[in-house]
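Bug #77: duplicate submission created two jobs. Keeping one. Sequence:
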Amino acid sequence: MDYNSQRPDIIIPEYGRHIQTMVQTAVMVEDREERNKMVRAIIKVMGQLFPYLRDVEDFNHKLWDHLYIMSDFKLDVDSPYPKPSADSFETKPGRVPYPQGKIRYGHYGKLLENIIQKVSDLPESPEKEAGALMAANLMKRHYLTWNRDTVADDFIINQLRELSENRLRVPLGTVLIATADVVSSSKPALKPQKHNKKKKKRN
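Kept job's structure:
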């Protein structure tokens, strides 16, 4: 009896052992024309396994790449795409650099600090004033997300001036988004409870 544990590993499990066997069989076909016909049939079957990906860009190109991978790059056929090399799939991705720079206030986050810097760089205009007010409201939302206590609007406005290096100004006394609105929007919506009504028995 032939057990899977005694067979070679499946190179791309998504296609299954049958497709891999078909590819390995195609590699052994000596006649190039017959080999091309067989490979085109295999590509068609591979595409039928994932019909929902047909609209993905370069879908057919990916199928041909997978075909070569399953053949251990030994397949010699007339492909509509350049034959890839094994080295092109073994190259390790570049290291993603870790963001540099300290976050002054952790509850605001780096993204909000970047927004403040972008708005600060705008020329003096109504758009800059609107951006400053938007940044102040975002700061209040972030603050109340991590600190459930109420916070004075002037406190947020002063921290906005600090983070913008005094380049963004919202007049003291400006009313920001209400604390109750921020807290209520962050709470999960309660599902209505179902009440089982007992049917009255007929006499």
